[in-house]
Amino acid sequence: MAERSLVFPADEFRHRVARLQEEMAGQGLDALLLTTAADIFYVTGFLTRFWESPARPWFLIVPATGDPVAVIPSIGAALMARTWIGAIRTWDAPHPGDDGVSLLVDTLCSLLPDQARIGVPMGLETQLRMPLADYERVAAGIAPRRFVDGTGAVQRVREVKSAAEVEAIRTSCAIAGRAFARVPEIAGPGRPLDRVFRDFQAMLLQEGADWVSYLAGGAGPDGYGDVISPASSDPLQGGDVLMLDTGAVRNGYFCDFDRNYTVGPASDAVKRTHAALWEATEDTLAALRPGMLARDAHRLLSEALVRRGAEPGGGRLGHGLGITLTEWPSFTPLDHTPLREGMVLTLEPGALVAPGRMLVHEETIVLRAHGPELLSPRAPLDMPELS
């Protein structure tokens, strides 16, 4: 058993498993069955881009006591052996007739009593990364053991970051911050937006990102219409606002924040809206505390924008962040998730500049006992001008 799992020492992962097992005990779970890249990486340190191939399922069992057991395709055995996981069971995959089903059934039955309750994440912001038909075959094969919803046990643990996780996210944010500072090297009047996007991704890699899992943004006169569209080949023009929003990854951990730039001088409307977003973020940084609810962050940001004469944009105004680009909670009026010390979150207020035109302003924070600590380098009050 390795004492380091590619990214962190083994004790970091042992501590995570202990926290999961504590939550499992409180919810009456005898085990967790994890199938996604994020959950398996969280417990093991198994870090690979091979998840981009959907051809094979992967399984990790976290029992109520003792160490996890990996049930994985044989192609992953060597890499899993470099983690702290000692129990690794494999099959040759893909196997059209039995792609790990019988091995997973045998493993669960050998580890767990007949009446075991096995938690599987089933709620919001979860997915099952195996064929549904095979999941049903496994459920039938392990009876009278049964699958139940294990969302709470996983989310309550993952949402509070360890010191090592916070530093990993801080590193990713610093990489993106250096790339954002270099945007004037690649963007200006006449430069096609899609080329800016490609050059910015290259710049993130140059600054130390392992990969750029997410890059979105927009550009247009006095703002942009949305923040998720692919970049067009349209050239930047005077009066445009350029926004870049990145989820670059370093050692398995994401950053997530954006920056806005004006092409030539900004209009008065853009200046007012950008100032309102910046100041609303300042107000929320000063007021947000553990013990509040996710909806309180939405309220703080929205009320601060309205006080400054800005019209808040729709949708959520921030979210959790970590080993996936977005995690729970969501800053909406409907999310009652308690905010806890150690959560890494984004503050992402948006406001309308004019009909069909908006600005979005995003920072990454970790919530401390005394309030937020910025992990992203703070955006300037005055929007940088590209010339």
How far apart are the termini? 56 Å
CATH architecture of the largest domain: Alpha-Beta Complex
In the predicted model, the low-confidence regions spanning at least 5 consecutive residues are none
Q: Name the quaternary structure.
A: single chain
Q: What helical percentage do the residues reach?
A: 25-40%
Description:
The protein has ten helices and 21 strands. By secondary structure, it is an alpha+beta fold. It folds into two domains: 4-157, Creatine Amidinohydrolase, Chain A, domain 1, CATH 3.40.350.10; 163-386, Creatinase/methionine aminopeptidase superfamily (Creatine Amidinohydrolase), CATH 3.90.230. β10 and β11 (253-254) form a beta hairpin.
Provide key terms for this protein.
387 residues, alpha+beta, Creatine Amidinohydrolase, Chain A, domain 1, Creatine Amidinohydrolase, 2 domains, six-stranded mixed beta sheet, five-stranded mixed beta sheet
Structure described in brief:
The protein has about 375 residues and is an alpha+beta fold. The protein is about 35% helix and about 25% strand.
Topology diagram in text:
Layout: E1 4-5, E2 8-9, H1 10-26, E3 31-34, H2 37-44, E4 59-63, E5 69-73, H3 77-80, E6 87-91, H4 101-111, E7 117-120, H5 132-142, E8 146-149, H6 151-158, H7 163-181, H8 193-206, E9 211-221, E10 240-250, E11 253-254, E12 257-263, H9 268-287, H10 294-307, E13 311-312, E14 318-320, E15 327-330, E16 344-347, E17 350-354, E18 357-360, E19 363-368, E20 371-374, E21 385-386
Parallel strand pairs: 3-7, 5-6, 7-8, 12-21
Antiparallel strand pairs: 1-2, 3-4, 4-5, 9-10, 10-11, 10-12, 13-17, 14-15, 14-16, 16-19, 17-18, 19-20
